[in-house]
Specification:
The chain has 11 helices and 13 strands. Strands 10-9-8-11-13-12 form a 6-stranded mixed beta sheet, with helices on both faces. Strands 1-2-3-5-4 form a 5-stranded mixed β-barrel. Strands 6-7 form a two-stranded antiparallel ribbon. β1 and β2 form a beta hairpin. α3 crosses α7 and α7 packs across α8. The chain is globular.
């Protein structure tokens, strides 16, 4: 396979030269395992590991390779390689690592993120905005895939499509079904040679089934429908890259139960650009758009210029991203204050009950 068909372009070539890595081979990380990576280039595939020096110098998860990365490697034999460096990333998708303080890198060097929802899972417009925010922050265009359209009547589907278009007028939408092959030709035409597409969505929305259709082979194991919940079972447990006949590159991802906001302020501002523009006319530069007098956003909300559901999601995402950016000390103090609030509320309630 030629390097260009793996997504190698002038951006990576120039950065390889700047970092004086021309003496090393380069390859793309196409799968990630515990402590090792599958790397592909024009010579073949290698199982690669990072050096001890890289591990010592790493200060965060983002310093380790991820699926989509271009890495400089030293071939140890025909099957193994040592990763010497990670080339600068053109784009990145990351989210808050649920239950941890750091960010989880989902994939890198992505051109388009396909955000998938289906009618038998968690269809929700706010969830679309969460995915859009993390993609926008990484400089990645998002496209909506509304999957399993065979589950609802055409009239109801048309209503849902109108609902989505009203909320996201500038976002492309593709309706698909692997049962009746609806929209699959449209999806294939959307995918271009040498470009990388990342499939994002909850467990069971049909990401792997769609990729299998695009590959025209059942490369990815998919689950049967649960007899209890009538929902597709979660099967994909790791990220992996696949190559289509037309030269397009797709990445399958494990389903996400939660889409936690990392340091994505820029992505949120870009997504909610209507609110961001209005905010420039607020009386206070640090306006939170929640209670301040002279807030242009609240005024627009009151007049109906800003959609109430979109506004509420904007505020929630901003608060979440702001909390993520706090230092551990600030978070501890905030949690401590909240604990005091709960304690005082319980005491006040107890006094209230004793007075009656």
């Amino acid at each position: 396979m030629e390097m260009e068909n793996l997504g190698y372009n002038d951006f990576f070539k120039s950065n390889r030269k700047k970092l004086n890595l021309d003496d090393f081979s380069v390859g793309r990380v196409i799968a990630e395992y515990r402590g090792s990576y599958k790397i592909k280039n024009e010579k073949g595939e290698y199982l690669g590991k990072i050096t001890g020096k890289q591990m010592f110098n790493a200060s965060a998860r983002e310093d380790y390779p991820a699926v989509g990365d271009w890495v400089a490697i030293k071939e140890l034999n025909s099957e193994q390689a040592a990763i010497q460096a990670i080339l600068p990333r053109k784009t990145i998708i990351k989210r808050k690592d649920i239950g941890k303080s750091g960010a989880q890198v989902i994939a890198t060097n992505i051109d388009v993120s396909f955000v998938i929802e289906s009618f038998d899972r968690d269809y929700n417009l706010n969830r679309f905005e969460r995915y859009f925010a993390i993609a926008n922050d990484g400089g990645i265009k998002s496209v909506i895939i509304l999957n399993k359209t065979d589950l609802i009547p055409q009239e109801e589907l048309n209503e849902k499509l109108k609902e989505i278009k009203d909320r996201f007028p500038e976002t492309d939408i593709i309706s698909t079904s692997v049962i009746n092959n609806n929209g699959l030709d449209e999806l294939r035409k959307y995918i271009e040679k040498g470009k990388t597409y990342c499939f994002l969505g909850s467990s069971g929305v049909g990401k792997s089934s769609l990729i299998n259709k695009l590959l025209e082979k059942d490369f990815i194991k998919t689950g049967d429908i649960s007899s209890y919940s009538h929902r597709g079972k979660h099967i994909t447990t790791s990220r992996e890259m696949y190559f289509l006949e037309n030269g397009g590159i797709v990445i399958d991802n494990p389903g996400m139960r939660e889409v936690g906001m990392a340091d994505t302020d820029a992505g949120i501002d870009s997504l909610f650009d209507e609110i961001t523009i209005l905010a420039k006319d607020c009386k206070y530069a640090d306006c939170t758009h929640v209670h301040e007098p002279g807030c242009a956003v609240l005024l627009a909300l009151k007049s109906g210029e800003v959609n109430e559901k979109q506004y509420q999601n904007y505020i929630n995402l901003k608060k979440e991203a702001g909390y993520y950016k706090m230092t551990k000390l600030e978070k501890r103090e905030k949690d401590k204050q909240f604990g005091k609030f709960i304690k005082n509320t319980k005491e006040d309630l107890k006094k209230y009950k004793n007075n009656f």
